[in-house]
User: Fold these one by one.
Assistant:
Number 1:
Amino acid sequence: MLALERRNLILEKLQEDKRVVVSELSQLYNVSEETIRRDLDKLDKDGLAIKSYGGAIINENNNIDMPFNVRKKKNVVGKQKIAEIIASMISNDDHIMIDASTTAVFICKTIKSKERLTVITNSIENIIELSDVSDWNIVSSGGVLKEGYLALVGTNAVERIGSFNVEKAIFSCKGIELKRGVTDTNEQFAQIKHAMMKASDQVILAVDSSKFGKVSFSKIGSFADIDVIVTDKNPGAEWLQAFKQEGITCLYPEE
């Protein structure tokens, strides 16, 4: 097993259990405790974990991004529920924009039965997922590849997205908070999502319940910019009232 693969598995375990123990990881992956300590040193240095006596705990700072392949495996059931609701909102012949979030990959999988869609995206993963669909128009945003994210960002990507007009823009975020609005960990991602909002007739925020009440570094937009919020469960009366006041439709699965 490659060191990178092992560290990603450790990150998955940290996301599930919140903490890991060196001796247990050593047995689990059949490597020495010293090797595990080096792995934890690397994760600590990258800001993904915090070393503790005999192990490590997850870094829950909302401005820290886990690797894409790790994030993709988090809350899979919730993301699938969100994707199913969004798929029901998309019609044949629609022109849509989809961001490079992990939730977007599930959405792409779910909408493949639609016909003659035009999809504009800054996600390499989305393009690969949709590469076998016939009669669709798949448009890349262009731009610069963001290392570790399978996403295209930068001025060229923002400008190209702004050159289109679509019926629906679908994107996720890292935080949604009553006063601060919709935020992301990275300014480049926030710029892409803001451009998608401006280019669309209907703005759909796909956000799982773990993001509610969280604030990240870079602002994407305010509630006034959002038309529909799709989440994986009822966010509660306070949130629903706030959305109602802003004229936002909130959709979630039936309990």
Note: The two ends are 41 Å apart (CA to CA).
Number 2:
Amino acid sequence: MTMAAIQDLTAEAAPEGPRERAPSRLGEAAFGFVYWVLIVGALAPGNWVNAVGMGATPHLAHEVLRVAAAGLLGSATAPIFFELSRRFPIAAPHRWRNGSIHLVAAGLAASILIIAGHVLALWFLEPAHKPSLAGWRDDLAANELLVFAGVMALSGLAHLRQSRLSAAPPLQPPRDPGLVPLKVIEIKEKGRSQMVSVAEIDWIEAQGNYVALHVGKRALLLRETLTRLESRLDPARFVRIHRRDIVALDRITGIESAANGDAMVHLKDKTALRVSRIYRQALKRGLAALP
């Protein structure tokens, strides 16, 4: 591994948060629901006044249903924009390209929300009317800009959250300075035990309550958490590259930068593994320290 390859590994890296957390899709959807309920609810009084001014008789139950439906529709889009903020951050060197992706996604999401809201409003509030192209066109013309602004604001909040997670350097698992790194690991299977030399391990993968020790073409399951096992490994030989993966540094043969700020490492056995941005600096330090 050359120093040029190591430097290329972090050329496009952006610092990230303390650890790569598994995103809570339910929490992101709940945030989207509350977000759109607040926005549409804030517009409801104005719609009510306009309806009365035009001689219509608005119904409170209908308005509540309309606001709730808007929240449910919006909650379906929120996890998408949180995921986009993670995969396509608006930061150098891909600021313009990633920004364009967010603009297109916001435009599509706004159009879908308006059309779906139009259909739901007619089916549940005015069942005597049927959705029509003319109605969709009118709704798009009247509300596209407003909903687009709301979607872009949601995207901005997703990026703000991601940037706050990116504010601190990655935390390393606690290590006992007096603890001797593992040399062998005992694998128990069907009442039998086998001893696996740590030096033979190519990479380690989290699989629920187990970790898979990849030794050549074999994958040996050990009932252990990845974080706990990491604290027992020699940090000069093993480094975490993803919330699910640990790799042996001397098995790495090449590194390939990815467009979204991540990277791929290629191992001697032809395995390719993704490197999350939050672990790229640790990987660089580990590779630089190899003899």
Note: The chain has seven helices and ten strands.
Number 3:
Amino acid sequence: MGKKQAKIVHEGRIVEIDREGISVEIVNKSACDACHAKGVCGAGDSRVSVVVVPQTVATASAGLQVGDTVNLVLSESAGLKAAILAYGVPLVVLMASVLILSAFSLPQLWVGLISLAAVALYYIIFATFKDKLDKEFVFTIEL
């Protein structure tokens, strides 16, 4: 027997099915507050989120219909990677820029502003790769 991979599961309701994918609406529950991956999975961002799951042979043959309740699954390792990209890397950018700029004896105001600008630049670059990241962090429907 192989090692069972940890996963993040969210219950949702199918709101649309088309050739591109299956749109699933997730309503946040109080359990999301305790979830360690709530900030990265997308379901914890607002009260209601819609996630588009790519259509596969398995989902197409499962006879899913609008209104069905399904479980969306994301591997825990993908959730951790998303958390690092969304929170860990910007923290490192902020701390590194503060330390490096402080070494040049710049005024604190300038150090703070430039460091915040560096983090903003990181998020702008991060946003340009959104399509690539969307392909990497894909929910699947548990059948």
Note: Strands lie at 7-17, 21-27, 48-54, 69-75, 140-142.
Number 4:
Amino acid sequence: MNSQLNPTKIAFIGAGYMASEHLKAFYDLPNVHLSGIFTRTIDKALALKSVYPDLEIYDSINSLYSKTKADLVVIAVPELACLSVCEEAFIYPWKLLIEKPVGYNFSEALKIEMLANELNSEVYVALNRRFYSSTIQAINKLKNLQSNRLITILDQEDAIGALASGQPEKVVKNWMYANSLHLIDYFSMLCRGEHVTTKIIEPWEPKRPKPVMAKLIFSSGDIGIYQGIWNAPGPWSVAISTEELRMELRPIEQLSLQQKGSRSIEMQAIDPLDNKYKPGIYRQAEEAVKAARNIKNSLPMLEDANRSMSLVSSIYQSQ
């Protein structure tokens, strides 16, 4: 943390794992002050304060804002608490960065977006995979390629494991929003134009989960192919095929290239920031500070995140 005058003040709601990862990144940014935290789990807040002594603990969202006048609040709470926290946090004039998913399903996400519009809240969503060095490298490679893109995503979800780990049943029933969103958001990032339609190849059967397959068509001519493997092994991967170049993120944190006319695979280096911090989190925090300072930034706003939630809904035919 830098001690320059007028630092950007960052507050936090929630004290779990993701909150701790956000804190780590913001703490290391210049001219940033971690001004306060509110959580219903005081023991977790005390544990964070032992690492960040300047972090004051407050007993309500109202006192968090009124005492800190924070420029930005980071909300990292469980899915089922998100709506009620947003209803209170949107009242205040800070900017907001909310950990995904913003709402446990699509209907709730739209409700939160409507609330943000009614209260003129400036809301961003922490889709940190957009800030992976591998993702940024892939997007940069695509900038000068004009041919159509075929984006193939392989998703793997373990609903049984999620329940066993203590996830609420209501969240697990909507696990495609809580977890598949991480991957389906790549369609929003990489496919150009508007989403025209989704053709279901293998439908989602919630009572008997099996592989889900769908074809997404975009107005640009780009095509997305989604495969979701449930309660069975499989790697997460994103493949990008163009006439000139094939790229693959597998694991998602690393990009590999295959040039036209070549059989060799070129592995791209991972930015050291994605080893020091949870991948993407530091660059995301940099952009969040820009937003707090009213500087142009690349953070996705709530409506951007909800476009990806809409894609999830189109694949799983679920609201």
Note: Residues 175-190 form the longest helix (16 residues).
